[in-house]
Amino acid sequence: MKQITTLLLLTLFTVQLKAQDIAFSDSVQVSLITCSPGPEVYAKFGHSGIRVLDKVNRHDFIFNWGIFSFNTDNFYYKFIRGKTDYLLGVQYTSDFLPEYKRRNSVVWEHVLNLRPNETKRLIEQLMFNYKPENRQYRYNFVFDNCATRPRDIIMGSVDGRVVFQTSFESKTYRQAIGDYIGADTWLRFGIDLVFGYQADKNMPQLQSMFLPEILKYEFLNARISNNQNTVTRPLITKTDTLTLVTSEHKEIKASKLIEKPFYVFAILLVFIALLSAYEIVFDKKYNTIFDSILLLVTGIAGTLIFFLMFFSVHPLVKYNLNILWLNPLNILAAFLIWSNKWRIHLFIYQLLNLILVALALISVAISVQTFNQATFVIIALLLFRYSSWIYRTKRKIIRKSKYKIKQ
Description:
The protein is an alpha+beta fold. The chain contains 13 helices and ten strands. The longest helix has about 35 residues, at about 375-405.
């Protein structure tokens, strides 16, 4: 609810600007704004914007590409498909900053070292983008977001080109995103689950700036060069801090066991291992209820991955090898497992599942795709149940065959 309220308030505080009604003086100052990550999921990666400050004409605006509404028709369906439209909004700086101060985020202002004609060109681009017919854009978490839009407009406004530092720490998309969401969290587990092997490719330097803090770091070390590379100047002249982290920062709570998927699944794995051993050693009744739930849950997860792979335009979700062990057909198997007449078919199906799980592990071993650490615990759990089911079903088939021979 807090997230929804925040975004709705953000929309209410946008300014309705008209290019013909706005005049800027020659002393106007343009800055890149960077907001540090916040505790909420939607704020985990920080935020960027462009500030236009004209003290002569008393204009102080922030151009913000992070506006969207939950009231959009079929919002969640569009979000899953990657077809969410965001808006460029303009806010008074005095309205923009309090929200980040409340969430205890630092807001940095990086003043751009632009010549008058470059500043004029940049502001013209901002006003053009803010026209009603242009302000809406198709949001893309990696390739078109609140950080890439300011980056592109700033770089496109300079005379010559922006030259970035040559020493660049190359990371994969998965690693860079993982730096913001923890090593063993449910958010990290979910993101690793829906990301395919494209997320394990190293990011080009320019593309890495889809994360606001990386954009900030690269801009601080960048220079503007003329086309002949004979004259250069810093892209940023100075950096100011507009909001500070207060000393009354909330005490960090110790993570609960249930908040760590690796340990949750590890406990479940021990239980499953004991259950499987008990069934085999004491020849007890096969636990159909538990396995039906296990097949149903993994099948639903696999269906979501399948949908994202083939029907979503989200980046990095294509070609996801998690689908090898999260088989969408497990949904059907979850119901067929209750019928004895499908026993032979399911026996073959579970053998196929074992092969698919093995292929998934091989893909990790040869570095095709990285799996979340908790994934290996689930895979071990599935191997226990698949193997147990195959062993017990095989024994039942053999017994039935012997009985028919005696008859």
